[in-house]
Automatic annotation (TrEMBL):
It comes from the Bacteria. Signal peptide: none annotated. Keywords: Transferase. Pfam families: Acetyltransf_3. This is GNAT family N-acetyltransferase. PROSITE patterns: GNAT (PS51186). Coiled coil: none annotated. The keyword DNA-binding does not apply. GO terms for molecular function: acyltransferase activity, transferring groups other than amino-acyl groups. SUPFAM superfamilies: Acyl-CoA N-acyltransferases (Nat). Residues 2-162 form the N-acetyltransferase domain. InterPro entries: Acyl_CoA_acyltransferase, GNAT_dom. The keyword Transferase applies.
Amino acid sequence: MLAFVEVREGMVEGIVKFLISDTWPFHGEENPTEELIRMKFQKGVYTADGNKSFWIIKNNENIGLIRLFDLPDPTCLFDIRLSKKQRGQGFGVEAVNWLTDYVFTNCSHINRIEGHTRNDNFAMRKTFFKCGYVKEAYHRKAWPQKGFLYDSIGYAMIREDWANKTKTLIDDKFEY
């Protein structure tokens, strides 16, 4: 079972250590620098201006990081990272289910949670599916990384589906 602890202002060293200790192949910055992480922390990317972050903890070890953003809006987004040695063990599903419960329980104004991933990130696509998120968008050549344009896929959970433990699929047969 995982635990989740909110990141606070004084935790920048842990964020830096975690993010530079691994490679993040399905994120815009695969190998973020210490300087970039510190700059983003100082600008509130992790802890201010409608953003919150949480450590994903297993056996007293930080194994991942969740970042929620656009929290003042009716739709928020999230980013999730698990250390390489923890991937593929179901922790992503547990973490996404936790963040979904957290947002809808604590942010009554939020009606939907969105997440986006590259089309070749099959583990995350499966995680969205297992957590009840609906695939709503397919953006062709929309994710620039390493000189290549990847397709991007958007998933969402709406409050109504979360509350009713249902999955409302898109019913759009209109061809254009």
